[in-house]
Amino acid sequence: MSVRTNEFSDRTCSAPAERSARMCDIVVQHVARNRAVEGLDLGCGTGSLVFLLAAALPTATLTGIDVSAPNIRRAEGHRATLDAATAARIRFEQADYLTRPASPVDVIASDGVLHLIPGDTRALFARLSADLRPGGTLVVCMPYDCAYNYAFAVLRRLLRLVRSRALDALILQVGRLLHGTQMDDEGLRERIPYMYIAPQRMAGRRLRETIAASVGLRLMARHPMASVSLSQLKHEVLVFEKAA
Question: Which CATH number is associated with domain 5-145+200-242?
Fold first, then answer.
């Protein structure tokens, strides 16, 4: 997962519980429960979505990959607390997705990651399509085309130009005021780097209908994803199916 490796390879990032639960519900809506599917969580963080999917899909085998070694260590720590049968269906891997050997699966999920991966959008989606078996499902949560997101992307680029410890501290203080009752300082600090990163792409009509179609992915559904902060880009969940 080429997500600014130098910035995220030594950081942890845990998704809010309600967001992982929402992603799990959407994946389960679009994946057959009556067969043993293989799934991949691209940018799994500390594994919250993987663990929810393992519980919701009791015959599935799941792999979570992330560029961050601390994320993978934390995910493995939680995996070690599970019963042996569930733990055997889960594995985690520290990897750069774009250089990882192809390993086709039935479903790929990715929450809040694809917009951060540098490079050509068609090449990224071609790789995702190649990693899906015919008839497979891709479920991705991404920022979408809207004025708010474009304005916020400009702000993030400007903040990046003037980043300093003082600005980090100010962002943390604002985060405490806005989210201090829902998130501790560790969680808030995890999110400070994102305030300096503008999206590489957004989920606009061209991505949904032209780029995806050109690599054999057909848009099946769009689901809303609630925004929990004014400092967060607005996201939606797209569900694609690979041509059989």
Answer: 3.40.50.150
